[in-house]
Specification:
The chain is mainly beta. The chain has one domain: Rieske [2Fe-2S] iron-sulphur domain (Rieske Iron-sulfur Protein, 3-layer Sandwich). Helices cover about 0% and strands about 40% of the residues. The protein has no helices and ten strands. Strands 2-3-4-8 form a four-stranded antiparallel beta sheet, with no helix packed on it. Strands 1-10-9 form a three-stranded antiparallel beta sheet, with no helix packed on it. A three-stranded antiparallel beta sheet has the order 5-6-7, with no helix packed on it. It is globular, with a radius of gyration of 14 Å. It binds FE2/S2 (inorganic) cluster. The site of FE2/S2 (inorganic) cluster has 9 residues, from loops.
Length: about 120
């Protein structure tokens, strides 16, 4: 088998296995990633809540925001922004659908430089 430019995407689930409005936790490379179905759009962020380590894949989604199941810290699932302090972001990951497979890139998106002083 030859390496392709797509080698850094891994399949986490098949279309239909993550219900709309919910998420799940999947191993992507060495990371655990929370993948959500937001009205048919798949989005992925780091699964580990930075507060005390709960699994964000088990959180509750409302209007593009996931609330941590333990203490309800909220993060935008499009890019990992912490709603209470938008200067803090957890990692987010590119997601694509190939045929019936939902695939997540193994490396997180680069975070933009912050220069807001
Ligand atoms: S562990 Fe997520 S808010 Fe506390």
């Amino acid at each position: 088998m030859t390496e392709s430019p797509d080698a850094d995407f891994v399949t986490v689930a098949k279309v239909g296995e993550i219900a709309s409005g919910s998420g799940g936790t999947f191993k992507v490379g060495e990371r655990l990633v929370a993948v959500f179905n937001n009205d048919g759009e798949y989005l992925a962020i780091d699964d580990l809540c930075p507060h005390m380590g709960a699994s964000l894949g088990a959180g509750y989604i409302d209007e593009g925001v996931v609330a941590c199941p333990w203490h309800a810290w909220r993060f935008k699932i499009c890019d990992g922004t912490w709603c209470d302090n938008p200067r803090v972001k957890i990692d987010s990951f590119e997601v694509r659908v190939q045929g019936e497979e939902i695939q997540v890139r193994t490396t997180p998106r680069p975070k933009p430089d912050r220069d807001e002083n």
